[in-house]
Amino acid sequence: MQFKTDVLRSNFPLWLSPMEDVTNPPFRRICKRFGADVLVTEFVPTDAIIRNVKTSLLKFQFSESERPLAIQIYGHLEDAMIEGAKMAAEAKPDFIDINWGCPVKKIANRGAGSGIFRNIPKMIRITEGIVKAVNLPVTVKTRLGWDENSKVIVDVAERLQDTGIMGLSIHGRTRCQLYTDEADWTLIGEVKNNPRMHIPIFGNGDVKTPERALEVKNKYGVDGILIGRATIGNPWIFSEIKHFFKTGEHLLPPSIDERVNVCREHLLACIEWKGESKAIGEMRKHYSTYFRAIPHFKPLRIELLQAKELDHILDLFEKIRMFNSAGADLQSVPM
Questions:
Q1: What is the pLDDT of residue 1?
Q2: How far apart are CA 198 and CA 286, in angstroms?
Q3: Which CATH number characterizes residue 101's domain?
Q4: Active site includes 31?
């Protein structure tokens, strides 16, 4: 099976970067509608996959409309990673993505995610084992290194390429930085411009505006970008970036009606996906951004964050919609 180079090479694809409790099927489908080119599942622990843990296997589910899509796996046990990759491949995604980048302490300290930078030979061995074990393209998402004194990504990228992976995504921070400081794209650019590299290189980190997306595209020459936290409550960012690339102008912001409609759709789909209580809890991280363009929104935001019943939340959505009929001027509010 050939990697979808038409998607990943030709048109500077915009990826929805995988995020736990965010990039579930409802949100992925919404982001796809607003221009995301490549989708990735929430990351799935391979030790849970091989034990048939229901909540982990549920993350394998996706619809045909979400393609091209990767199932992302993580772990630190070599046999479990390979067997988990095989099970993920049986779900027939377009490719398998290995997470060698998660900085969360409980994951990294076990040697999974970006913790693998403490044992690079193991990283290479597991990656190569997965490439050989599955009949699908394999990509890797990773970071610059473990800490400021071990930014080894230029060398590691070559070694990962030699395993047979078909694409590499790099977040411009070390594990020890977590999500602090500004993402450093310099080494991402060095990897991309290394004459030995021939696989697509995708960059990730602090792409929050169309201007920044165009800057990293032009300055570092990457083949595409991953957008993560900037999508939370803001699936429109993909269409905004594409519009800016094409015209050099900003797309008009979505109206309050559209924001309410999309947020309501997102909430109801999440409830259908995982139940009312869990969905309501997970949606709270989205509200501030969905409705950030509304003046004097703070009291309603607080009430939304505290609401525990669906009917109450839907009533609050309608109160928010009334800002529109009251003549709120979204174009005058900084996005």
A1: 38
A2: 38
A3: 3.20.20.70
A4: no
